[in-house]
Amino acid sequence: MKAFRGSLVAALLLLVVGVAFWLLRPPVEDRTPDEGVRIFDFEKHELVKVHVERPGAEPITLEERDGRWIIAGTDFVAGRSMVNRVKHQLHDLTSRATVVEDPENPELYGLGANAIKVELTLRDGRTLAFEAGDPNPSSVSYYIRPIPGDTVYTVKKSAVDYYSLTLDEFRERRFAGFDSKDVTRMDATIDLPATDERPAVRRHLVVERTGDHEWQMLEPVQMAANDDRMRRLLGRVNALKARDFIEVDDAELQARLPEWGLDHPRLDITLSFASREPLRLRVGADAPSDNKYEQLAYVLVEGDDTIYIARRGLLDDFGADLEELRNRRVVQMREEDVVAVDATLRAEPGEDLEGEAGVRYAAEQWVWRDGVPVPGSTPKRVARYLAELEVQAFVDDHPGDLSQYGLDDPVARVVLRNAAGEERVVLIGAPAEPLVDAEGRERLRRYVAIEGSPSVYVADNRVFSVVQDLIREGNRKKARDLEKAARRERIPSEALPEDEPPSGSAGDP
Fold first, then answer.
1. Mean of the per-residue pLDDT values for the chain?
2. Rounded distance, CA 43 to CA 125, Å?
3. What pLDDT is recorded for position 12?
4. Residue 111 neighbours by CB under 8 Å, 6+ apart
5. Can you give the pTM of this predicted structure?
6. What is the mean pLDDT of residues 102-125?
């Protein structure tokens, strides 16, 4: 009984202590995670100037002038990526933590006399400034102090770590930029090294634009040039980026051209434009590289006093086999431009399919010559496969005897016509050697030619198959029309409407 009374007393005492603690406890603060302090808040497009002062180095100023960013005091264009980086990192800069509000020794954080000072100028004339200091012990954040102000914060490393970079890092590294759609002509001279098949040669390549997606090679041979390949070549020039810069004055430039191999460059390109002065670019000798997998060369842009060190891949691009530049779309017409197709097919030995057929595109549909709509997709496939015919191989540009290709008497002749009345005539000849894949399956091919052009090509057999489909469907329609006419012949004349005399009557033309 005594033990029970002792336990009861202990429980009552514990209850009293608990109630007292509850009544006398300090109020609990409603704490939320620290979301940081917004240091800067402006729109990216408002920034027009960035001035950077670094201990022991020349200041750097990036300015927007007439819509483009330059490095003040130089002729250098400011790097777009660097300008965008400043805008992106600072326009809504928020601290990660508040370190100290009034440091006695700001140098401990890399601030004060040791700091990098950055001043931003906005379009309305406002200025924003801060000091960037050292990385914190974890090296994932940097110390920063807004000016005016005494509070030290940490911000993410990517927001300020680039201000210690050299002047070259603030320069635009794309040094040959242009609008490829504005190019009207390309002249290029390239030294081709010797191979087992030929000695070293110097090739002169001239290509002119003849349409939005059409190019004509003038030298070293005359032929249509491939639009995709031309865009790729222009794109490689356009995308050139400097790995390093060598600044020289004009006298030094002329004296050192042989040193860099730029007096007799391995590649000399001149691009002509519709709306600006030509661009001439020379690729010289190999430049030293710290990366054994990256080959570099000295590059000079005419009128520039900078020697650029860039990747030398242009030498391979412009030294490729001419066949790669050749336009494989030999008909030079687009599917959507075709408004009429007329095809003739003769029967090959062992076959009985032959005839002729014609279709027109009117009122947003394909119709036969008599205006009856054509069911199915055959006319569309014929227009696509023939107008946009992409040949697989170039056989002979000056054939002496077309009979060996079956093109002296082609098995099929197809006339394509556009709304302007322009025609392209595709001739389809004998079967060519089929392609055989790794599993032994054959893909049939045909010799083809374009009427008026001497060249002979090899194309996939489907260009012949779709013509056969058109003739087959045309023959079926003709058979149905004849059957319908025969039935009408058997109908007594008095049973026909007065305005539809039977075939062969006085009412026929």
1. 88
2. 14
3. 60
4. 103, 131, 133, 143, 145, 152
5. 0.68
6. 92
Residue 426, class by beta-carbon neighbours within 10 Å (0-12 exposed, 13-18 middle, 19+ buried)?
A: buried
Cα atoms found within 13 Å of the Cα of residue 308, Cβ hemisphere only: 22
Query: How many angstroms separate the most distant Cα atoms in the chain?
Result: 140
- Please check whether residue 176 is in contact with residue 68, taking contact to mean a CB–CB distance below 8 angstroms: no
Q: Is residue 319 pLDDT above 50, yes or no?
A: yes
Contact 473, 465 (CB under 8 A): no
Query: Residue 493's pLDDT is what?
Result: 64
**332: exposed, middle or buried (C-beta count within 10 Å: 0-12, 13-18, 19+)?**
middle
pLDDT confidence tier of residue 509, bands split at 50, 70 and 90: very low
pLDDT in tens, 150-160: 999 999 999 99
- Check whether 496 has a pLDDT greater than 60: no
pLDDT given at position 355: 96
User: To which H or E segment does residue 6 belong?
Assistant: helix 2-24
Per residue in 23-41, pLDDT (tens digit) is 554 443 333 344 689 999 9
Between CA 105 and CA 482 the distance in angstroms is 105
Q: What is the spatial distance between Cα 330 and Cα 386, in angstroms, rounded to a whole number? A: 10
In SS3 terms, 48-59 reads as EEEEEECCCCCC
Structure-token match 């914190």, residue found = 136
Binning the chain into helix, strand and coil, the percentages to the nearest 5 are 30, 35, 35
| Residue 13 burial by Cβ neighbours in a 10 Å radius (0-12, 13-18, 19+) | exposed
b/e string for 129-148 if b means 16 or more Cβ within 10 A?
A: ebbbbebbeeeebbbbbbee
247-255 contacts, C-beta under 8 A, 24 or more apart: 247/305, 247/306, 248/305, 248/306, 248/307, 249/305, 250/305, 253/305, 253/307
31 contacts: CB under 8 Å, gap ≥ 6: none
Chain centre distance of CA 113: 47
Buried b / exposed e over 467-505, threshold 16 CB at 10 Å, is bbbbbebbbeeeeeeeeeeeeeeeeeeeeeeeeeebeee
| Alpha-carbon dihedral 377, 382, 387, 390, rounded to 10 degrees | 100
- What's the chain's length in residues? 509
Strands 423-436 and 442-450: antiparallel
Q: Say which residue, 9 or 245, is predicted with more confidence.
A: 245
Q: What is the dihedral of CA 127, 130, 131, 135, to 10 degrees?
A: -140
Tell me if 187 sits within 8 A of 270, measured CB to CB: yes
